[in-house]
Amino acid sequence: MGKSNLIVEEEHKYTPNPNKKPKKSLIRKFKGSQKFQKYLFVYTCLLFPILFYFGFRIIPTLFTFNVGFRDWNLLSSGPQPFVGLENFVTLLKDEVFLKSLFNTLIYIVLGVSGQLLFGIIVALLLHKINRFVGLFRVIYFIPYVTSIVAISWVFRWILMGNGVVNDVLINLGFSAQPFLNSPNQGIYVIIAAMIWQAIGFQMVLFLAGLENIPTMLYEAADIDGATPWQKFWRITVPLLNPTIVFSAVIGTITFIQVSFTQVINMSVDGSGGPLNSTISVVVYIYQLAFRQFDLGLASAATVILFLFILALTLFQIKVLTKKFDY
Amino acid sequence: MEKIAKIWPYLLLIIGAFVMVFPFIWMLSTSFKAPIDIFSLNIIPETPTLANYTQIFEESLFLRWFINSIIIALITTISVLFFDTLVGYIIAKFKFVGRTILFILILSTLMIPTEMLIIPWYMMSSEFGWTDTYFGVLFPGLMTGFGVFLMRQFMEQIPEDLLNAARIDGMNEYSIFFKIAVPQVWPAISALGIFTFLSNWNAFLWPLIVIESSSLRTLPVGLSYFSSGEAESKWHLIMTGATISVIPMILVFILLQRHIIKGITLTGMK
Q1: Residues of chain A contacting B108 with CB distance shorter than 8 Å
Q2: Interface touch B242/A153, C-beta < 8 Å
Q3: With an 8 Å Cβ cutoff, are A45 and B87 in contact?
Q4: Are A146 and B250 contacting, i.e. CB atoms less than 8 angstroms apart?
Q5: Which residue range or ranges hold the ABC transmembrane type-1 domain (chain B) (predicted)?
Q6: Which residues of A touch B166 (CB under 8 A)?
Q7: Which residue on chain A is closest to B26 by alpha carbon?
Q8: Residues B102, A302: C-beta atoms closer than 8 Å
Q9: How wide is the angle at C-alpha A25 spanned by C-alphas A22 and A29, nearest 5°?
Q10: Which domains does chain B have, with CATH numbers?
Q11: Most buried among A84, A149, B190, B222, using CB within 10 Å?
Q12: Does the distance separating the beta carbons of A128 and B20 come in below 8 Å?
């Protein structure tokens, strides 16, 4: 009994020890060095990105807010006094600014809904056919990859008073249109060009969305005797909802940028004319900052633009996601 | 009846396709027309000429602008791909102090429109002497919040075991990133690359502000000045300039079509 106990004890004492001890310390060493290696990797790699995001994104944003509350003009040297909400009050009384804000809303509402609508239509048509799909996809997508500046000037060229579009209109028996020269038509011509350029992008997104809808659902609807219209609203639209929300939000952000390039290059005077009828907020900010050198006013305008985009995006997400929440 | 049902989608698509390509056809056609027939309505020029192409390169800095655009778009794309992929990987696969805060900060930069940063960037550039330099044009785009967000999404799908196996084999962290993580997310990287290149090639607002001398203009900025002032109503030259800035992108698109379309689908569905 004593002997067997001893053996057990001995086994307990000796067998695990020679194996475990060096193993444990090896693992510890290994783990220690690996952890060190990991941290070294993480922090050295993050050094530049952290500096970048702070230096060129976060701090400049805070700086914009700061400048917006100051009387900061590049032409007058000297101190830039804190003036509180003065710049904001000036802007909200400024008719051109209000016009530019209203125009931006028109650009976004008509532009984004137009590109969604045409994107869905083209995607549905492409989904219906089985030949030349690739060719059509290329043709509809090409405007998206081409330079906005170049395309803006091409549109000016074909839409000018004695341009090819008016020639065709006259030959068909219509009267010639002023298009970009008209304070009533200019903004819609620019929006049409924006939509034309974005259709391809939306089409690709919706095509992918359509391919993810199980055909079973449509077959079931056919058995129930659903009309194509019902199938579209009850199956296609709800199932494409995530794509629609994504497109609308992304579209809004890109339209704000595009509304600068396109307006500068398409409007007849190159700065939102005629009679400020096509001016967008970004064009006006550009004029305030780099034509009038009033950085305080321009920064206040960007703060308003920021709040405007934020509100619009939240509104879109709320409305669009709620609508089809079955 | 059934035949008509089959044909009408094609008809609508052909009409739409005509609207999509007509501006390009007219642009190309004008670029080959002599100044006297640019107002003629023929699509095929009566006396086709290459004179506009030689003239635009001789009379303006078009070649220089073209090269500037390539340099700037290429440098920004390489930088965005390198840093965004790396940061996305680190945020997805490592636990370290400040990870969540860093990710939230980078995500929040997505909400900041570029237009909002133009004024501080301009002030910084003039303070540090970056205006009118290549660096001045490209510094704002060296990294993007969107890229980090996108790459993090893809990096998260890489199995942890794969990375740990490499660690046990004694690979160092840098080789694990380049040799194991990067190949796994290659489709996402190429999509990000194509879109970064495209948006920098077409960038207009910031280059317009930061560049003063005409020799440093990028193609869109050069074309914009060229069209509005320097070549008033020289439509044959403006259309030649437009063709030069549009054709390379169309060729690139046709070559990389599959990747681009896959890229949009990938990014759009994330």
Answers
A1: 58
A2: yes
A3: yes
A4: yes
A5: 66-256
A6: none
A7: A158
A8: no
A9: 135
A10: 1-49 (no CATH), 56-262 (1.10.3720.10)
A11: A149
A12: no
Residue B26 at interface with chain A, using a CB cutoff of 8 Å: yes
3 state SS for chain B: CHHHHHHHHHHHHHHHHHHHHHHHHHHHHHHCCCHHHCCCCCCCCCCCCCHHHHHHHHHCCHHHHHHHHHHHHHHHHHHHHHHHHHHHHHHHHCCCCCHHHHHHHHHHHCCCCHHHHHHHHHHHHHHHCCCCCHHHHHHHHCCCHHHHHHHHHHHCCCCHHHHHHHHHCCCCHHHHHHHHHHHHCHHHHHHHHHHHHHHHHCCCHHHHHHCCCHHHCCHHHHHHHHHHHHCCCCHHHHHHHHHHHHHHHHHHHHHHHHHHHHHHHHHHHC
Residue B264, pLDDT above cutoff 60: yes
With both helix axes pointing from N to C terminus, report the angle between B62-93 and A16-53 in degrees, rounded to the nearest 10: 140
Nearest to A67 by CA among A55, A83, A91: A83
ipTM of the shown complex:
0.91
Whether chain B has a CB inside 8 Å of the CB on A126: the answer is: yes
DSSP-based three-state secondary structure for A199: helix
Instruction: Identify whether B248 is preceded by a cis peptide bond (ω within 30 of 0).
Output: no
Nearest-CA distance B181 → chain A (Å): 14
> Across the interface, which of B12, B115, B261 has its CB nearest the CB of A257?
B115
The pTM (predicted TM-score) of the whole model is 0.88
Is residue A229 exposed (0-12), middle (13-18) or buried (19+ Cβ within 10 Å)? exposed
Q: Do A154 and B23 touch (CB under 8 A)?
A: yes
Q: What is the pLDDT of residues B167-177, one digit of tens each?
A: 888 888 999 99
Q: Touching check for B124 and chain A: CB below 8 Å?
A: yes
DSSP 8-state code for residue A1: -
Q: Torsion angle of alpha carbons B196, B199, B200, B203, nearest 10°?
A: -160
Strand partners, A73: A294
Q: A2 is written with which tokens?
A: 């004593």
pLDDT, greater one: B191 or A325:
B191
Q: Give the distance from residue A9's alpha carbon to the nearest chain B alpha carbon, in angstroms.
A: 35
Note whether A196 contacts B118, CB cutoff 8 Å: no
Q: Annotate A123-158 with DSSP letters as a single string.
A: HHHHHH--SSHHHHHHHHHHHHHS-HHHHHHHHHHH
Measured between CA atoms, the residue of chain A closest to residue B252 is: A145
Residue B205 to residue A246, Cβ atoms within 8 A: no
Which phi and psi angles does B233 have, rounded to 5°? Answer: 60, 10
Name the B residues in 90-109 with CB < 8 Å from any A CB. Answer: 90, 94, 96, 102, 105-106, 108-109
pLDDT in tens, A183-239: 999 999 999 999 999 999 999 989 988 888 888 888 898 888 888 888 888 888 888
Do the chains contact at A158 and B26, CB–CB below 8 Å? Answer: yes
